[in-house]
Amino acid sequence: MTHPTRPSAAPQNDPAPTATPENGGGPPAPGRHEPVPAPAAPRDDTPGGPFGGAAVPAQGGPSSDTVVYSGKAPSGGGAATKGKPGAGGGGKGAAPRRKERDPFFDNAKFLAILLVVVGHSIAGLMEVPLAKGLYIFIYMFHMPLFIVITGYFSRHWSASPGKARKLITNVGVPYVVFETAYSTYDWLVGRNELEISLLKPYYLTWFLCALFMWRLSTPVWQQIRWPLAVALGFSLMSYMSEMGGTFNIHRVIGLLPFYVLGLMLRPEHFEIIKRPLSRVFGVVVLAGGLGCAYLVMNRMSRDWIYWKDPHSELGVDNVTGTLMRLGMMVCATALVFAFLSVVPRRRTWFTKLGAYTLYTYLLHGFYTRLLKFLGWWDLPWMNTTPGVLAIIAIALVVGTVLCTKPVVRCMSWALEPKMTWAFTRFRHLGAGPSAKSKAKKPRPPQASGPSTTADSSAKHAEPVVR
After folding, report:
1. Helices marked H in 200-309 — which ranges?
2. Distance between CA atoms of 137 and 305, rounded to whole angstroms?
3. pLDDT per residue over 41-68, tens digit each?
4. Residues 181, 184, 188, 192, Cα dihedral to 10°
5. Is residue 18 situated within a structural domain?
6. Rounded to 5, what percent of the chain is helix, strand, coil?
7. What is the pLDDT of residue 100?
8. Of 138, 303, 350, 383, which has the most beta carbons under 10 Å away?
9. 461 lies in some domain
């Protein structure tokens, strides 16, 4: 007896799983889940933070903001290590590691902040040639260095709700807190009149005020054709007229080209200065800069290196002043990249401290102001070469301690406040669907024919990004 042929089920042409970091392949396709790094420890260089963040580049590429996953992924996206799904090159169920930091930039920021502390500590010892020459050398490039790094890590800044909130909490709020704190400290310890003015930054708080404005202007510089030339023109022209001391506007505009230069840099540019030959040139340039500082220390007014006075207050005409400013910017840029070329590339004992340089920057001023208020700079033994060396050693210790975790835990309320209560829940203003409704996607239609498994359609359906 012949049995009738049983109709076969339609073949299920399920698409092959997309190669993603979870299964050892490349980046996920648009619209699919990307691995989310574990939350990093609080630091001063989150996307809205003042000094930018640094991630370890993935193997084979120069990018400094790439998420690195655990283990060594075999070329071509191999399978996971046997018995350890999160330790190999991926595989199903592999868990991504947290976003790591590039030690190069953390090392650079830590060494740079030590220069800042040393410079402020020897500011009152200008009768000693050692202190005076070193002071001019440091002030030639230490703030341009920070500004270039800050601009580099502001390349992806936008006025999105999350980054705008970070700008407020990590820059705006610390500015208000420390402007008030330093003015009060000046009144209590310095015995001066109490004057709290958010329009006139006190001492080192000008950098937060400038950073707030620079970050807001980032989208503008990313749209125009010749951003560095335009910023340089604004900078040079700003010193031709009196603009007052409101917001320290001469520094804000005068140092703007360094921020725009940082915006224009790319990871491959830093690969150039990491070459061995670049390090040799860097040592030569730094040595030459230090020698030049000692040559001009008695011939040039120190007001030039503060970047805050117009030509009229410096006693020069606009042509001479413009040429001087342009020459100083060239020298500062050369010293910045020379310094970066000698920074260690590998992880060191101070690498982790480089993540908290904003704490040192804003807190060390209480120590340096104390040197002035108590008259320690006027002590005879301090105005000697051994005294200068001693104050430099103390400054290095203070700068290091202020980057440590205990200080960060005690002061994070002021530098990285959690202020979710201060922001509205509505992230998008105006008409149109909300972000939540936009994120929802319609369920894909079921394939015709019987399903071989109960979760076949769910397995390959497009995930909803929430």
Report:
1. 206-221, 227-238, 249-254, 256-264, 267-273, 276-296
2. 9
3. 334 444 334 555 444 333 333 333 333 3
4. 130
5. no
6. 55, 0, 45
7. 75
8. 138
9. no
HEC profile of 11-45: CCCCCCCCCCHHHCCCCCCCCCCCCCCCCCCCCCC
76 belongs to a structural domain: no
Average pLDDT over residues 368-389: 94
Task: Tally Cβ neighbours within 10 Å of residue 97.
Answer: 16
Number of structural domains found in the chain: 1
Q: Which amino acid is it at 366?
A: F
Task: At 409, list the tokens.
Answer: 């835990």
CB 19 within 8 A of CB 92: no
| pLDDT, tens digit (0-9, with 9 covering 90-100), for 146-157 | 999 999 999 999
C-alpha separations of 235 from 232, 244, 252, 254, 361 in Å: 5, 15, 9, 4, 25
Q: What is the pLDDT of residue 444?
A: 57
> What mean pLDDT, rounded, does the chain reach?
79
Query: Token digits for 171?
Result: 């820059």
Hey, what are 403's tokens?
A: 């980057």
| Average pLDDT estimate for 436-442 | 50
Residue 426 or residue 418, greater confidence: 418
Range among 5-9, 85-89, 125-129, 454-458 with highest mean pLDDT value: 125-129
Q: Is the pLDDT of residue 237 over 90?
A: yes
Contacts 24+ apart (CB under 8 A), 198-204: 199/246, 199/247, 200/245, 200/246, 200/247, 200/248, 201/175, 201/247, 201/248, 203/365, 203/369, 204/120, 204/361, 204/362, 204/365
Q: Apex CA 271: angle with CA 66 and CA 404, to 5°? A: 65
How far separated are the first and last CA of the chain, in Å rounded?
59
| Structural domain includes residue 239 | yes
Instruction: Tell me the C-alpha distance between 160 and 144, whole Å.
Output: 27
The structure tokens listed for 119 are: 């410079």
Band (pLDDT 50/70/90 cuts) for residue 245 is: confident
Residue reference for tokens 């230090």: 290
Predicted local confidence at residue 424, as pLDDT: 83
Please give the residue range of the domain that contains residue 343. Answer: 103-419
Prediction pTM value = 0.73
Nearest-angstrom CA–CA distance, 436 and 410 = 37
